[in-house]
Structures
1.
Amino acid sequence: MTTAATSTRSVLAQRFKQRLKPFMPAWVLKFHRNRAIRREGSLYEGKSLGEVFTHVYQTGGWGLAADESGFYSGSSSHDPKIVDPYVKAVTAYLGAMPERPAVVDLGCGDFNVGKRIRPVCGPYIGCDVVDAAVQSNRTRFADLNVDFRCVDITTDPLPPGDIVILRQVLDHLDNARIVTVLSKLAPYKVLILTEYQPLNTNFTPNLDKAIGSHLRLFGPVPSGLVLTAPPFNLKVLSARILCEVPDSGGVIRTIAYELSGR
Ligand SMILES: C[S@@+](CC[C@H](N)C(=O)[O-])C[C@H]1O[C@@H](n2cnc3c(N)ncnc32)[C@H](O)[C@@H]1O
């Protein structure tokens, strides 16, 4: 079977699953998630991150785009119940700065969220490892004056700026790659991080996982990223929760970390 045919089959299967999802009992959802996690683990072994996340987009791993773009970064990048509070909180935070900050958005995805933050920012650089998504953003958001770049944040140098945004990116990477990204954040003043965490605050943070579309929240033992905890131990001057939205049995937490420059 050709790659195109395989991709079309995956997209149709994904569309079918999306329709059924609201009617599936929790144990069926968990069974399917576990199977998908196992499959992704072997499928992506030895692949570059560009190949991995291109495949995630092509097969609708985060859902399917309703428009012609073909890129859909997930319901948590589109659901107004999740995106609106985020935009309100981050806009208020950035808008209160004495000058419009230079923003670097790492893993900007389909830019459905970034486009709403853009107005309160100075220069804006949007980076993603999926070249076709970057090119699509350049066309679709040509009027927003954003410098879209194809960058692998784990291996490439990061562009300069005041504020770095990482919204639902790191949880798709394994711990070793997260360490390399964090080692490059010192030049920024503030990191605005958004990730899922379990609702139960007694969870073990930072359990390792394979790269892919899935989240630590849905691993065999539910977990989530806490960058200030081991093994990452990110050094920060302050941490301020900007917003929290419950979703999918967890909470999507956005934190502004003032970085210590070390
Ligand atoms: C779930 S999407 C989130 C997109 C966007 N931040 C948002 O909140 O709507 C994760 C994005 O991170 C990108 N990504 C993952 N690993 C990356 C890497 N190493 N370098 C750059 N982008 C990466 C993926 O291609 C994808 O577009």
Note: The longest helix spans residues 3-20.
2.
Amino acid sequence: FMQFPYKWWPDDCTGFSFIWNEEDHLVAINEFPHGPVKDGKSWLQDIFGFYTIDGDANILMGWNVGMLTREVELLSDDVVSKGCQYILNKFLGAKYNIPPPESVTRTKWYSNEHFRGSFSYRTVDSDKLNATAEDLAQPLLANNGKMTLLFAGEATHPCFYSSAHGALESGVREAQRIIDLYASPREKSCRIAIIGGGMAGLGAATTFLQAGIEDFLILEASDKLGGRVDTIYLNGNVLELGAQWLHGTSNYLHRLAEENNLIVDEASEEGVGIYVRNDGYIFEDFMVKKIDFIVGKILEECENFVDSEKYPFSVEEFLEEEFKKHLRDNPNEDKEFVEKALELYDWHYRFQVIDNSCHRLKEVSAKDWGKYSFIGTDRQKHMNLRNGYKSLVDILLKSIPEQSSLLETPVLKIDYSKAKIRLDCRGNLTILADHVIATPSIGFLKQNLLQFQPPLPDITRKTIDSLGFYGIGKIYLVFEEKWWKVDGFQLVWKRNTILGDDRDWIRYVSGFDTVFNQTNILVGWIGGDGIEKMESLCEEIVGIHCVEVLRMFLQDPSIPLPIKVIKSTWISNPWVRGAYSHTTPACDRAGCGPSTLAVPVTMDGVPKIFFAGEAVHESHFSTTHGAFESGERQAGNLLKFFRRYKL
Ligand SMILES: Cc1cc2nc3c(=O)[nH]c(=O)nc-3n(C[C@H](O)[C@H](O)[C@H](O)COP(=O)(O)OP(=O)(O)OC[C@H]3O[C@@H](n4cnc5c(N)ncnc54)[C@H](O)[C@@H]3O)c2cc1C
């Protein structure tokens, strides 16, 4: 941290990143011959930039990384300070008059014997050894089998290693292990254990009840039933943090919603309002419609690969190739048109990343693109529920006896090696059951936090590993009053725009839409690589970033800050870890997908574990009705088994 006597950089500058050319390697060593050198490069080249700090007007912070960091820590403050001044002057001296710093403060994490560095990362060696964070998190047992030494810390977190929240979660995890150890053991038994009380779990429970079977228990990790349905109430109306719309008819949930008069006439649409660029340019309607039509047509063509032997590697490959082909086939279009078309294409790409809940479209299988099926008219694509999705869950729960579910009861281990399946749950609770319907999300299952004894069959494990699962984020901006006159703002970026600061995550927001039944609220949709950053920021900062970007796009500095921000956190949710699933090129290669996950796991010819959930539905994956139906189906399969053997 270099504290200068005054701020010598411009107000709108947030920092300087340094790029070196080959010739300068030697020059740097000759001109500043102090400190370590490796492979012909001075330690100074590992300082990749200097950046401003919020709230500290005269300070620049430099980041030093790489092989020489440890040796740099041993240099005197004076050498480090002079070295930093040398590079600042070398890169910026021609433009700015840079005064010497008043003081330099630096970190020495490696020299600190209590840390020896900053944080952990996965190495090629750990891959080779198949050594994971979960291995490190396994407690050591004494001779009597009792846990004696437990490990927590960022390095033991399977997905949030290297982060403060990962470290915190790991501490909670291990403390919970000890609490469980000392909780007095309890045991319950039931004929069927249903893991998870989301739509799939409720679908299974409803089916058993309809068949006259009441001897089941829903074991739900969180403190409520509904899973990825999460309705909250604001201003007397609903906001959905999870599932938003009912998609289509001819399914149980739609029938139930109709019977109970839950569906309103007003249907929603996506991608409405104005398409506006970060320089304030508003795209002409005809242009927006034209690109929408072209992209829509290409994606429709992609559906044909479902019956084809030959298919492209991924949706991304097909979409990009065909879109470029379209531009090539229309050489009369001028340069400006092509540029705008590519900018709008980028919006569609972002939209599809969100819609498919993936990182990138290259993770989405082109072969299976046509498998998703929608039944209904255009107006039934995005149906709104009068009192929110929770009202549907509440109706389902009316017929499920309260004592049939245990909340805050995560299942940690399933031992299906014997006739009675043993489920170890948090709180030293053991459930003995004959059959299990397991409905945790693919995101949860991928973490391997639920242990299976014996391990799951190869094809089941392979399917869990191969299916894609990532996130969707929603950001509700609540304003004092409505200041917009359009139905939404779709954000189109000039190509290659990088904000280059803390707000970079906003590049992954498709736009801000109006919200059904809420006059003064806008909702931002985000996916891809921006979502984890968004989830990690506090609401206030998220709100400020969103409004700053809206001000930039609409060229209107008077847009007010929101009075409240509400955001979803599905990736951080330890029992879900994202939004929904998709099939991937890895599934194509391995010949697996929802149907292979639907095959029951057996022991001695008896079906023991049935997986259910949105990811287990061949054609309605990613939806609530698909999840419900998969639960119904797997319960139905178990009932068939009972009938066949008169059980
Ligand atoms: C932001 C967002 C928007 C969406 N929009 C729509 C939409 O508009 N329309 C639509 O149809 N669908 C939408 N979906 C998808 C829909 O919500 C899901 O497909 C559906 O709710 C999944 O139900 P499920 O039962 O398969 O899984 P879940 O709802 O995830 O239920 C599984 C349950 O298992 C519990 N669990 C996990 N691990 C354990 C364990 N070890 N022990 C005990 N319990 C455990 C979890 O807490 C969870 O409650 C959206 C989802 C998100 C996140």
Note: The CA atoms of residues 194 and 437 lie 5 Å apart.
3.
Amino acid sequence: MPELPEVEIVRRGIAPVIVGQTIDDVIVRERRLRLPVTPQLRQKTRGQQIREVRRRGKYLLIDLEGSVLIIHLGMSGTLYFSPKPPTRKHEHIGWKIGDVFLIYNDPRRFGCVVWSSSAPETHPLLCLLGPEPLSPTFDGIVLRQALKNKRTSIKTALLNGHIVVGVGNIYASESLHKASIHPQTPAHRIGNVRSSRLADSIKIILHQAIDAGGSTIRNFTNVEQASGYFQVQWQVYGRGGQPCTCGGTVRQFKQNGRSTYYCPRCQR
Ligand SMILES: [Zn+2]
């Protein structure tokens, strides 16, 4: 499932190719995604110039002239360039941009492609999202403020999307390990010092993943496999029973139905 780093890699991969270009044509082959594709997407976006490609949480925002395409990759979505229009199975949408097609492929159809003429920040899909972890405005103070009335565990709080967006299960485990915080610590007990360490750790872990994706993906044009799935060597995630760098042993348990990995020696 594409997480924030994967989506950021997709953004960095497609932006240089499409920004400043005009959408020459749009082919919609399947409208039944998690949300139906906006009716008349072709008429609404054809001839429009692409101004910018941004990301908010796991949403890609393709800014056009006074409107925006909001794209989510769902569970299995990919975006890639192809010299040919979409014809293969699961290739639901194709935008002809210059001499390439930007293809939206999504076998499970859990993603969405929505067009909006109002500011994306006010769109129902985006308006309730928590702070952006990589933004300079997300720091220990903001995090502490958001956590101080939360009775749930810190790991659960990080996953809910209101405290901060885009910190999925892997990144929550890794960030807590980096910040030396036990995943079951009640969120409201995380004070200023640990909040600040945790906010920094979240940024470092996400940047590490983005860098790993960036080095894996060399050429985004015409590369289907480049649309953003990559492996990072994690410190605790997926390493139950193996040694931690501190000399302890990584443990695994279920927390709200999700696997949590941590080191009881260095996370307290
Ligand atoms: Zn350890």
Note: Residues 244, 246, 248, 263, 265-266 surround zinc ion (CB under 6 Å).
